[in-house]
Amino acid sequence: MSHWIRKIREGNARALARAATAVENRDPEVLAELAAADLPKARVIGITGPPGAGKSTLVDALARALRGQGKTIAILAIDPTSRLTGGAILGDRIRMQDHHADSGIFIRSMATRGMPGGLAAATSDLVRLMQAAGKDYVIIETVGVGQAEIEIAGLADVTVVVLVPGLGDDVQTIKAGIMEIAGVFAINKSDQPGAGRVELELQSMLSLTDGPKPPIVKTVATEGVGIAELLDAIQHPAPRRTLRRPNGRPAIDHLGIAVSNLDQAIAFYQSIGLAVEHRDTVAQEKVRVAMLPAGDSRIELLEPMGSDSPISKFLEKRGGGLHHVALRVPNLADAVERLRASGARLLNEPRAGAGGHLYVFVHPASAGGVLLELIQEA
Predict the structure, then answer these.
(1) pLDDT tens digits, residue range 124-168?
(2) pTM across the whole model
(3) Does residue 281 contact residue 305 with C-beta atoms inside 8 Å?
(4) Residues 183, 228, 356, 324: is their CA dihedral positive or negative?
(5) Could you tell me the domains of the chain?
């Protein structure tokens, strides 16, 4: 175990702050050690919604409730970037001063540094850092968002979309992508006129969707009203809808594309209308990934974390481009057994990858010249 990881696991707040700075500055040595570390699992809560919804006050109230349960917490507050300094403005250290003496809460304000999607580029790696520190919960508060800033859904275990009455056409502020990512809806400032209307509009829109419906919780964060109910909904979320394929046939899950610079590649695909659904770090492959939905499939962008990454070797040999094709199969274990019986060459045993799915790679020599990834359907 690295010396700095040992120090943050011992509760050294200064060591954690210094490591967080290194992560934000994309220090390759720290990122590589973090990727290789065996980390405990923390529950990640995303808090998102339009500006002025009271997200910071709600985060503050949730942190108090979790501390009351004896849980340790990291709060990652994403703020706009100052054009003068490049740092975060409206820092949540100011908005959550009451927690400064509580060693069980670590608060970090982060600048977006030009990244779209409501998050900062280093957010997923900072989540891993907080897991390395042994935090029970990581709460991520996004920048005030509109319709397309949905990247939080790929990082959080449950996403809370915060609304308030009085925004005019209330539900218009969360249409399209952000409407679909909610694990819980929180109507904050629900003591104000119009809260009932927001709830009715949400119920009306949710009635048009299939599968489990996200709970709707009314809160007044400044007074602690509804916080216990919101925390219960977060800790016991409704099951997520799963994607089922007709006749149990495999389907294309994604196309893996090797890139030398993930942020630049993301910017290109966003310019043609795609949005990041999920960012992650896959330690065993030494790669950072971003998933962008494209119709019924996705594009997976892959950036190496070091010279010993398979993606780095691919880039050196062939340059950027299509790295692999991934198929989602109904039963991965059965598929692997059939492949082995046919003499196909597998490159690994089934294991967890980005987003927690199980996967196995098939050598190009057995798959018609293309590296093939098989993924267990959710």
Answers:
(1) 889 989 998 999 999 999 876 654 456 777 788 899 999 998 765
(2) 0.64
(3) yes
(4) positive
(5) 3-235 (3.40.50.300), 250-376 (3.10.180.10)
